[in-house]
Amino acid sequence: MELVSNLPVYRTVPEKYIFPPDKRPANDTVNHSINLPVIDLKGGCIDSDGRDEIIRDIMKAGKEFGFFQVINHGISTKTIDNMLEVCENFFKMPAQEKEPYYSNDMSKAFFLNSSTQYDKSQTRYWRDYLRITSYPIEEFIDQWPEKPEEFREVLSKYTLRVREFASKILKLIAEGLGLDKDYFSGDLSKGNIKMEVNYYPPCPDPSLTMGLLPHCDRQLITVLAQGTAATGLQAKYKQKWINVKPIPGAFVVNFGHQLEIVTNGILKSVEHRALTNSTVARTSIATMTMPTMDCLIAPAKELVNEKNPPMYKEFIFRDFIKAYDAALANREGVLEFFKLY
């Protein structure tokens, strides 16, 4: 079991974690003057008076960035902080207590691993992660760890609240596209809820390492709690990277490949990555809204016509997952499988 969270404190980066010079983040251009748009959901209770404005803001942010942050979303800061804390406490447990959960079996409802499955080079990412299937809760809760002792209770509560929040965002997006507000409420969003909890310990030299490779998400949308310990998430914007600065209690929302395909390219799935830092451990929790495995994915008929023909062919979501894995999460590589032109 090789985990970054189990390593001793190093003054230099071990060789296996050092990236070639051309792949190091220090060589990329970062635009420090641009910040992601921030959407205020007014406490999560969106009345008719403010709804149109919120929808306009979401669509504007989505079309330009593919990302936005959400504040006043109706989920308490305590609920988010409790989830971040219980996950951090899991990674801090002694190695022998974590070892039973270490696995490469992607079919498990809970497993622990390190680096990333999508990079086949010998260089390792400075990252440990948990992959959790968290919904339906009653189906998977017995496969979650019993330590820390409050883990199951906290995860159950967080799952329900974030699932409700994601559904709300999808309804607003559907309205903004001119679709029925429940367009995404069927098989497009009724797959199992999955979470990826990323843990990035302090790194002696962040300029040599990566936390997570540039990639786009395979699902419909992602809701990310990134804590406030340090900035680590970066998103691609006009061929440069921008920092996604943590806002206390906020969620970062980004679009996955399925939303780009269903909207026929109106909304984009945007590349993002994670950097390391030298001072503090950073934890983030990505909650993924997934289609069912047998869901038929295609551009919405309401969004295509003679002037805007479909850009993507129809496919079954499980076939997309195979293509995503084959392309090693590369944005253009995976979309090439499904483009019509």
Automatic annotation (TrEMBL):
Keywords, in A-Z order: Iron, Metal-binding, Oxidoreductase
GO terms of molecular function: metal ion binding; oxidoreductase activity
Pfam families (UniProt xref): 2OG-FeII_Oxy, DIOX_N
Top-level taxon: Eukaryota
Domain Fe2OG dioxygenase: 191-291
InterPro entries to which the protein is assigned, alphabetical: DIOX_N, IPNS-like_FE2OG_OXY, IPNS-like_sf, Oxoglu/Fe-dep_dioxygenase_dom, Plant_2OG-oxidoreductases
Keyword Metal-binding: yes
Coiled coil: none
Family of the protein in this entry: Belongs to the iron/ascorbate-dependent oxidoreductase family.
Name of this chain's protein: Fe2OG dioxygenase domain-containing protein
Organism expressing this protein natively: Rhynchospora tenuis
